[in-house]
User: Fold these one by one.
Assistant:
Number 1:
Amino acid sequence: QSALTQPASVSASPGQSITISCTGTSSDIGAYNYVSWYQQHPGKAPKLMIYEVSNRPSGVSNRFSGSKSGNTASLTISGLLTEDEADYYCASCTTSSTLVFGGGTKLTVL
Amino acid sequence: EVQLLESGGGLVQPGGSLRLSCAASGFSFSDFAMSWVRQAPGKGPEWVSGISGSGGDIYYVDSVKGRFTISRDNSKNTMKLQMNNLRAEDTAVYYCAKEIVSGGWPLDYWGQGTLVTVSS
């Protein structure tokens, strides 16, 4: 199972919005609405930010939103804060009932 | 408060074995599927294995099939990962994590991780 494809890095200024893409195949992202997004700060465990494409866990800011079209999912963060600077990983359930992660995107908030 | 506490990591030689444990508290353990996820130094997370709430459904990433065995004991609120024939590429921090809802492995709570180092 190959990793999902994400841009290596993205940067923006505080207050701006960014979108991170995550491209898979018809055997993962395209198969189900089981796409999730994780935020990871250095030395910390990943934190679930979005699940089932667009659902936010309790406590996650509504500045974070998710969507999907075909084999590509996207995470949008609006009103960027300096604390949003982190690594972001997408993940998708596969048709083998396993979970595959993306390679990660480093978000820099300038 | 949900807590997940991993233990059992350490240094092991190639070809050796380790057994990781995850002690869960603060939620109805048997109601939730659980996963092991690893993260090699400087790399992204890699899902290793998952087990349903009942323990009846088990899944592995291809790279560990035949070498790793996941299990759970709902009477003790614990999950384990038996790792045999370890390789250098298995070196990573291993996290246990729980699903937020059933299906698709969305993982809302993670432990602090336990480091496994495979080296001679």
Number 2:
Amino acid sequence: QITLNESGPTMVKGTQTLTLSCTFSGFSLSTSGVGVGWIRQPPGKALEWLALIYWNDGKLYRPSLESRLTITKDTSKNQVVLTMTNMGPVDTATYYCARRVRHGDFDYWGRGTLVTVSS
Amino acid sequence: NFVLTQPHSVSGSPGKTITISCSRSSGNIASNFVHWYQQRPGQSPTTVIYEDFRRPSGVPDRFSASIDSSANSASLTISGLKTEDEADYYCQSHDTNIVVFGGGTKLTVL
């Protein structure tokens, strides 16, 4: 059974750095083709892809946010960490992590964690 | 970079058929897989179509999808609408170094 679980602060202040963890089970990030991504969704708005990391440590970032994002993995801990610097109120959103295999869909998602940014 | 454009909302009556479009702004829609997600209120998205037209196990065959290269768009069709189909639907595709979600379509089953 594959599960993913996001964790991190529920509230951050403006200009602070957000650090979110995605702890997963049921698959390995050392398996060829496997990746874990972060997607966020502001309240009442659309899904927005943020970042993706693959088994081979290949990383992709949303171009408009690339300067603020860092994604890393710890294969031994089955964990992926996303950091986002200089948080602002517009970054208030539910942050999801999800598994992706090569160019497939995001086939397993976490429940998401709501992060609220105060000014 | 490219954008995937979806209608903001569609509606249909129980038993009817609706189609949601997903238009790609640049680049060939057929060059990269298109996936479709359903998101019910308060829940995480789940895949209803992957790799252009494939249905995950457990998704009823009322859900189907296609690619129209001439229109550079993808479409999700839901037939025999049920009240449980009321949700937001998102298309998603990618290019070399980017993943893109459409803006989402709210389906109302009247």
